Amino acid sequence: MTSTSELAALDRRTLVHPHTTIGAPAEPLILDRGEGALLWDTEGRQYIDGTCGLWQCPVGHGRTELADVAAEQIRRLEFYSSFGDYSNAPSIRLAERLLSLAPAGLERVFFTNGGSEGNETAIKLARLAFHHAGSPERTVVLARTGGYHGMGGASLAATGIEGLRAGFGPLLPDVEWLGKPHAIEHGPDAADVLVAELEERIAEIGAHRIAAFIGEPVLGVGGMVPPPDGYWPRVQEVLRRNGILLIVDEIVTAFGRTGHWFGSRHYGIEPDMIVTAKGITSGYVPMGAVLIGRRVLELADGATFLHGFTYNGHPVGAAVALANIDIIERENLLMRARVLGARLRERLDPLTELPHVREVRGVGLMLGIEFTDVPTASVQSGCRADGVVVRASGTSIVLSPPLVITEEQLDTLADVLCRHVAAAAS
Predict the structure, then answer these.
(1) pLDDT of 267-295, one tens digit each?
(2) Which one of 132, 149, 167, 181 has the fewest CB atoms closer than 10 angstroms to its CB?
(3) 3-state DSSP helix/strand/coil % of the chain, to nearest 5
(4) C-alpha gyration radius of the chain
(5) Cα separation of 176 and 169, whole Å?
(6) End-to-end CA gap in the chain
(7) Where is the signal peptide (predicted)?
(8) How far is residue 372's CA from residue 45's CA, in Å, rounded to a whole number?
(9) CB atoms < 10 A from the CB of 89, how many?
């Protein structure tokens, strides 16, 4: 049996991990198994999972029923292309289920393998729809600073975190930036400021040139930042008045994270497209989906969408997604996200009394702690040494534990995190 030290050495020799420095491999934490909100490494050390990896696992780790569903579908039909007129029963049933849970007005589903592919799809479809409808000049995409939409050509171009775009050369043209939707940065009239900026930018560019606006209901990678009060209804009204499509990136916020099936429902958003992934299968199988609204379908009616990915509509992913959604519904995890989110927020709110804590914020069971001048990586590493996994994201520590986390585990997470946040400035 290969030892942990041998595995670590092999990892350093053979792998390039995302978000690491090439030529300077880090010492890996090699995880071996998981159950619920707990993880164990190959040395047998236990950790409370405060992030779901990349916030993708609402139903928790080690759900044998999802493994059984995947195995059964693999035995029946492991995969066949869904290009053209080929299809499979699990993907058809999943499309129907997603549309039944989504906000009104969404009528079709295009499957992907993940979030970046979903945003690539939505941006291309928005441009194609207007081109087909006789407005080929509508190519501009409006995006927000602080937004994260993926690592593809178009999705990275629309990602408003400058460091992530650095060094890759020219990306998708015609992306225009707007301010970060963060109340603490714009003051008590934040919604007024952001909406005024949006209207001014549309006037400068010309509404006739703008295809779509893309945004997250709550910024995820940008720090778990909820929008200012009243922001989304007013943004939506401006976009509709100017004929601009609204793409809502729900890769992080869907499937219970905000306490609703979709974050759009929490904020009363009626998107033209929703992009989702991650929680759709709880990460057990790579899967994503773009939910497409009536207006897009009308604009694109008759157009050939020469776009797709090999594993679109994967039957194993679709079967697991259906079972995953059943678990979320059966175990009432939407309500659990609201209750446990409020509990965790109550435990963390006293941190705002510390001089180096700028803000504690969140919606449902997604929370962020923003610092003034604290190296967040040290808080992250300190927590991990004490058996709690949290994530440093810029100047914030972000939290998104599995929705099945127990109250005792949640309290331990909060205790460990508070202790390291308090010690960070000493």
Answers:
(1) 999 999 999 999 999 999 999 999 999 99
(2) 167
(3) 40, 20, 40
(4) 21
(5) 17
(6) 43
(7) none
(8) 32
(9) 13
